[in-house]
Design brief:
The protein has 247 residues and is α/β, with parallel strands linked by helices. 37% of the residues lie in helices and 25% in strands. The protein has nine helices and 16 strands. It starts with a strand and ends in a 6-residue tail after the last strand. The chain binds adenosine-5'-diphosphate (ADP) and N-acetyl-L-glutamyl 5-phosphate (X2W). N-acetyl-L-glutamyl 5-phosphate binds next to helix 3 and strand 4. It is an enzyme of class 2 (transferase).
């Protein structure tokens, strides 16, 4: 989709959005760019899980999601995180609409590995006919959930944003997080290839939530999204994740 920018905002990053973020969205909209926001909410899901004295189980940065965890995830993402982001957009006079996977079968998915992760999926289809007329007029805000038939699936938000950007052939994907990019010895790496990421993972320099983020970014770069950046602000390039011939 021409002129499309997909921005993923991590659960922590939502609480740290600066006025410049909203100003940039406004400038892009005025310039005719289409904007789709995918929000996380992992920290809030874990907080509620702990409050209810249930175990928080993760593997490779992915939440192991049984029925109870799925219910909590849906509650937090659609009842707490998404309205919080929509309210901030409203406060900055930006027109936005929040959608979930079940609206016109908006986001469809498939299971990742039920034995390992439970009801965790990846996004396989976006209802483009429904989306197209919405996008020029408003910012579309999405939670990282998908439907397989009538079964809801929890999707890592980085993976959701990358899949959506790939399926829609976005020009740009920003993975906004709470760090200025991929760090090595305290410095932001300006670029990152798959091969470099593998070495840094083996050296335990890339750990926890940064692992699925980089995997998602590489996937989007491979699928033809022209610019893929991991950063903490839209005005800073942070780390550009690039597709190389050595994958
Ligand atoms: N090499 C690295 N560079 C930067 N952050 C890293 C690295 N390795 C692990 N991390 C961790 O990854 C976190 C970002 O992932 P995550 O917490 O899942 O963010 P988000 O909620 O925005 O998706 C950082 O806050 C940091 O703690
Ligand atoms: C399968 C899986 O792990 N889903 C994530 C969805 C939210 C998310 O990714 O939020 P952040 O981007 O804020 O971490 C979760 O349950 O935490």
């Amino acid at each position: 989709m021409k002129n499309l920018i997909v921005i993923k905002i991590g659960g922590t990053a939502i609480d740290q959005l600066q006025p410049e973020f909203f100003e940039q969205l406004r400038l892009w909209q005025q310039a005719g760019r289409k904007i789709l926001l995918v929000h996380g909410g992992g920290r809030e899901i874990s907080a509620l899980t702990q409050k209810l004295q249930l175990p928080v189980k993760r593997e490779n940065g992915i939440r192991i999601t049984d029925q109870a965890a799925l219910q909590l995830t849906r509650m937090v993402l659609l009842g707490q995180t998404q309205p919080k982001l929509l309210t901030q957009l409203l406060q900055h006079n930006l027109t936005a609409i929040g959608l979930n996977a079940a609206d016109q079968q908006f986001l469809q998915g498939e299971l990742l590995n039920f034995t390992k992760y439970g009801y965790v999926g990846r996004i396989t289809a976006v209802n483009q006919e429904f989306l197209k007329p919405l996008l020029p007029k408003q910012i579309v805000v999405l939670a990282p959930l998908a439907l397989l038939g009538d079964q809801w699936l929890n999707v890592n938000a980085d993976s959701a944003a990358a899949a959506i950007a790939s399926l829609l052939q976005a020009d740009e994907l920003f993975l906004l997080t709470d760090v200025p990019g991929v760090l090595k010895a305290g410095q932001v790496l300006p670029t990152l290839t798959a091969a470099a990421a593998q070495c840094l993972k083996a050296a335990k320099i890339i750990t926890t939530g940064m692992q699925p983020k980089i995997a998602a970014a590489l996937q989007a770069a491979r699928c033809g999204v022209t610019h893929v950046n991991i950063t903490n602000q839209l005005s800073a390039a942070g780390t550009q994740v690039i597709q190389k011939g050595d994958l």
